[in-house]
């Protein structure tokens, strides 16, 4: 498997592992998408990001 393809696969598994955090972040964004503001969902995004990073670290 090409290195780039492997990286995408690892990222995809990391995102799939964090579906709960992704859903919370998505709900935050969609709740006010007509009036979105910078850092509006920062707490939710950070939780999702940290989860994905943790999941990816276990795969590499």
UniProtKB/TrEMBL annotation:
InterPro entries from the UniProt entry: NDUFAF8 (IPR034595)
Any one Gene Ontology cellular component term annotated for this protein: mitochondrion
GO biological process: mitochondrial respiratory chain complex I assembly
PROSITE patterns (UniProt xref): CHCH
Domain of life: Eukaryota
Protein name per the record: CHCH domain-containing protein
Organism for this UniProt entry: Phycomyces blakesleeanus (strain ATCC 8743b / DSM 1359 / FGSC 10004 / NBRC 33097 / NRRL 1555)
